[in-house]
Amino acid sequence: MKGKKLVKMAVPLMLTFGLIAGCGGGGSSSGTGTDSGKEADGPTPISFTTILYGEPPDFNGPFFKEVEKRTNTKLDIKAIPASSYNDKFNLALSSNELTDITLIEDPTGATTVNAIRQGAFVDLTPLLGDFEKYPNLAKIPKDIWENSKVDGKIYGVPRPRSIADHTIYIRKDWLDKLNLKMPTTTDEFYDVMKAFVEQDPDGNGKADTIGYAGLGPGMSIVGPQLSVAFGAYKPTFEGDNMLLTWMTKGYRDYLEYAHKMYAIKALPQEYSVLKEDKLSTAGKVGAPASNFLNLWKYLEDTKKADPKAELVNVPPLKGPDGYASIKFSGYYGILGISAKTPKDKIEKLLQYLDQAASPEIVDLSVNGIEGIHYTKENGKVKVNEEAKKKDPWSNAIIVAGIFDKYIKAVNLSAPDEVNEQQKKMVDDYMAVATPDPFLGLVSDTNSKRAADLFKDRETVMTKVVTGQSPIEEWEAYVNKMKADPDVQKIMKEFADQYKLKYPDKK
């Protein structure tokens, strides 16, 4: 399915990476969240709205049949393509046509917060209590629950993700060839990147290698990974206002560092407009930034261009004011329950979400069915790539799941020694990670006005990094924004929220 087509189907749902997406067929419930779900022994009917990435899987295939059997559910799923999910979600909010369970991508968005405050979703705080009735949900770390709250209350079950997710890889074969040591600081990293650009590490006699680059649109992962080492993510206040991350001195210092990297061609010269990771997988980048999970796949792709490639993680780099490791929210989206859902059904929905967070369901969602989607040889999983290609169930996000700090570190196709090294590196990054101080904070003004107020920010930033403008232009831009009344309102709202969340801190 492509485009903005809305898909509705009664299918089994399994929870781990998100929700389910459907295609074709008919549903067993109205999708309005009005079923009482009183069947004593039969499957519980649940209407569900979720997001779909790419082509839909076969919802009548063995994988989803198995999910339905294990969870004893009958699901009526509205699967919405990612490109139109927010629009459809907002429409459902405004028309009060929410399903029993809905994936809320951003619980701190202005529209969502307004709907929550008007009673669109059930306050789960008293129902979950101490989680005694929900042992699998109880395993989600407290920090993740706190980060996903709105106004201090729980309005949905967070879908756990790794807290320390981003890392930097490096071409070990290039280090060895140039007789360089593994960098441990941002200064050493700069020196190594300079060598990668100037000393022909791939040995082709051409000046065509790049130092540092990201994977993904606009190289967006590059910024946060290093800026935190300069103190950009430390909570900073001016009077009653909380400075936004990019307003801090640490972020300014990071931009100067980024400009130095760009000036020696250690950054891609068109970094701000790059849309794909082809540059990195072409074997021309010495240190790509990505998440831990991508290392093995990236290495396999790079070896197609350069069979001698070796790739390892860079340890968290020590900078002038911290380490290059950021602690994220630990979740992607929450699963909210419609306030229209009958009271006697809400507990069944929570029981379902808890069951879907069990190790058994999580294993099923990750690996599929043994003998169909994978086999085991000497205790190690061997993925049937052809079966996964024919039935790409991971395109349909499924809910909740368990928290596993190594979930973005382990690749089933990678050798054990690679996965063990990845796990150790996750621990190293976690030990020195700086949390994003804005996690879980809500500013109504920011949600409504940020896109317009800060529309020139990326342009000014790019000009500074590429040397088209001096750092003073960035400083002038920041000062101009700090003086704007609406921006001051944003900073004040964030400051008030921060003090409520962390009463013992400034």
What does this protein look like?
The chain is of the alpha/beta class and 506 residues long. The chain has 3 domains: 7-162 and 330-395, Periplasmic binding protein-like II (D-Maltodextrin-Binding Protein, domain 2), CATH 3.40.190.10; 166-327, 3-Layer(aba) Sandwich (D-Maltodextrin-Binding Protein, domain 2), CATH 3.40.190; 444-501, no CATH class. The chain is 38% helix and 16% strand. The chain has 19 helices and 18 strands. The chain has helices spanning 62-71, 85-95, 110-117, 125-128, 142-148, 172-177, 186-198, 222-227, 249-263, 278-284, 295-305, 343-355, 359-367, 385-390, 416-432, 444-453, 457-465, 471-483, 485-501, and strands at residues 7-11, 44-52, 73-81, 101-104, 157-160, 166-171, 210-214, 237-238, 241-242, 285-291, 311-313, 318-319, 322-323, 326-327, 331-337, 374-377, 380-383, 434-435. The strands form 6 sheets. The chain has a 6-stranded mixed beta sheet, with helices on both faces. The protein has a 4-stranded mixed beta sheet with strand order 7-10-6-11. Strands 8-9 form a two-stranded antiparallel ribbon. β8 (237-238) and β9 (241-242) form a beta hairpin. The longest helix is centred in the C-terminal third of the chain and has 17 residues, at 416-432. The protein is globular.
Lateral strand order in the biggest sheet = 1-3-2-4-15-5
Question: What is the CATH architecture descriptor of the largest domain?
Answer: 3-Layer(aba) Sandwich
Per DSSP E runs of 2 or more residues, the count of β-strands stands at: 18
Shape: globular
* Straight-line N-to-C gap: 50 Å
Round the Cα radius of gyration to an integer and report it.
Answer: 24 Å
Structural class: alpha/beta
Q: The CATH topology of the largest domain, please?
A: D-Maltodextrin-Binding Protein, domain 2
Instruction: Count every helix, treating DSSP H or I runs of 4 or more residues as helices.
Output: 19
CATH superfamily of the largest domain: Periplasmic binding protein-like II
Low-confidence stretches: 1-39, 215-221
The biggest sheet amounts to: 6 strands, mixed
Multimeric state: single chain
CATH C-level class of the largest domain is Alpha Beta
The proportion of strand residues reads 15-25%
Residue-averaged pLDDT: 84
Keywords: Signal
Protein name: ABC transporter substrate-binding protein
Signal peptide: 1-21
InterPro entries: Bact_solute-bd_prot1
